[in-house]
Design goal:
It is found in: Mitochondrion inner membrane. By secondary structure, this protein is mainly α. About 55% of the residues lie in helices and about 0% in strands. The protein folds into three domains: about 45 residues, no CATH class; about 90 residues; about 130 residues, no CATH class.
């Protein structure tokens, strides 16, 4: 039975949303003379204490006049104003970083064109991310200039429009968690359908030789040009890219994304996967349809190495078709790569 029968189990899900948590705020007030402060919510250098070396020595009061103590506004309007100021400052810094990254990316591209400079992976990632962020700059900048207070809603409901330099690590993590829920549902449907197909199991995709043998048998069915629009949309959704458009648009979008992954894979092969820090490793596995949520570092490294063995085999004839490669991620989403090198 063809693996293409399993595609019917894929479902569409609603777009990602992103929760917004207000930032803490502070303002400065004056403390009356001879007032001792012991609140644990205040900064340490304002926690004034006196000690005695004997019972005959008394602690002298410490003058606190003119000392600034951090204290947040109590009214709702005051909190809203302070939070708005903090957000504007954060997004302004993010836009400055975006502009700086874009200048550096252009300089690197000129070196490649004029001097034949070879990019390393971090430089390649900088150029790629800078291009993505610059495309988002116009709509994001328009909202920032007209109504900056509405940006949290933009982050919450349309995170794809926000440049990466204007996202916090906690916001990126929440985005990954919501994408993981989408992937888990799709994986559950595919595995349930796979039970009706003889000879197909997740273990088959964990074996390099079995996977390559399967790829030769089903290469025709999983050629992107032969996959219909609903399934192309599901593949795009699973890989975390935009799944809106016609069949031709989705196919080109997925091909472009997988070409980027292929170039990144080549650089990963030149460099050592073991040298990636946890942030780089998590980003790499998420881009390839694998999990970073609740995964130990060693399993992610093994999974990334196994991916590279599939995309760049010793024998080019054993290359896995893009459609089947993406489809296999649904079987291996929760895989344990123990024993894989």
């Amino acid at each position: 039975m063809s693996l293409s029968l399993l595609r019917t189990s894929l479902r569409h899900t609603r777009p990602l949303t992103l929760a917004y948590r207000p930032l803490p705020s502070v303002r400065y007030v004056r403390i009356p003379l001879h007032t001792r402060t012991f609140s644990s919510t205040w900064i340490k250098y304002n926690d004034l204490k006196t000690t005695t070396t004997s019972s005959s020595i008394e602690a002298k009061p410490v003058a606190t006049e003119g000392v600034a103590v951090a204290k947040g506004p109590t009214s709702r309007i005051g909190k809203f104003i302070q939070n708005s100021k903090d957000l504007i400052r954060f997004y302004k810094d993010g836009l400055k970083l975006l502009w700086s990254n874009n200048k550096e990316a252009k300089a690197l591209q000129l070196r490649v064109q004029n001097e034949g400079y070879t990019l390393n992976r971090s430089e390649f990632q900088l150029i790629h991310q800078s291009k993505k962020d610059m495309l988002k700059l116009i709509p994001f900048g328009f909202v920032f200039m007209i109504l900056p207070e509405s940006i949290p809603l933009l982050v919450m409901y349309v995170p794809g429009m926000v440049p990466g330099t204007c996202l916090k690590d906690s916001q990126v993590q929440k985005t990954r968690e919501k994408l993981d829920k989408v992937r888990q549902k799709m994986t559950a449907n595919v595995l349930k359908s796979a039970e009706k197909v003889d000879g197909i199991a997740p273990a088959d995709f964990l074996s390099l030789t079995k996977f390559q043998r399967m790829a030769k048998h089903y290469a025709y069915d999983f050629d992107l040009i032969r996959i219909d629009r609903p399934h192309l949309a599901s593949y795009c959704r699973f890989m975390g890219i935009n799944n809106i458009g016609t069949q031709g648009m989705l196919r080109k979008r997925l091909e472009k994304y997988m070409n980027y992954i292929n170039e990144d894979d080549k650089l990963l092969l030149k460099e050592n996967v073991d040298e990636l820090n946890i942030k780089e490793l998590s980003h790499a596995v998420e881009e390839r349809g694998m999990r970073s949520i609740d995964q130990d570092e060693e399993n992610m490294r093994r999974g990334l190495k196994y991916w590279l063995s599939l995309t760049h085999p010793a024998n080019p004839e054993n290359t896995i078709p893009v459609g089947l490669l993406v489809f296999s991620r649904m079987f291996l989403l929760n895989a344990n790569y123990k024993g894989k090198q």
